[in-house]
Write a structure and sequence with these properties.
The chain is α+β, with helices and mostly antiparallel strands. The protein has a domain at 32-61. It contains two helices and two strands, in the order H-H-E-E. It has a two-stranded antiparallel sheet with strand order 1-2. The longest helix is centred in the middle third of the chain and has 13 residues, at 28-40.
């Protein structure tokens, strides 16, 4: 899933050369573990006294 061109230039044009097929392939791989992690620990947001937000897995509560 590539970003739409309306977003503007990439943040570091020097770092990644314009190899779109190589750059587009690894993008779905990092996205899926993040979604799986959020699904496994269904985010119960607990705020402690200072207002820091901490996500606690559902099983613990």
């Amino acid at each position: 899933m590539t970003l739409p061109p309306s977003r503007g230039p990439p943040p570091f044009p020097d770092r990644h050369p314009p190899a779109t097929p190589a750059a587009a392939a690894p993008v779905p791989a990092p996205l899926t573990p993040i979604r799986d992690r959020d699904a496994s620990r269904i985010r119960v947001v607990t705020r402690n006294v200072r207002g820091h937000v901490r996500t606690v897995p559902r099983r613990r509560r």
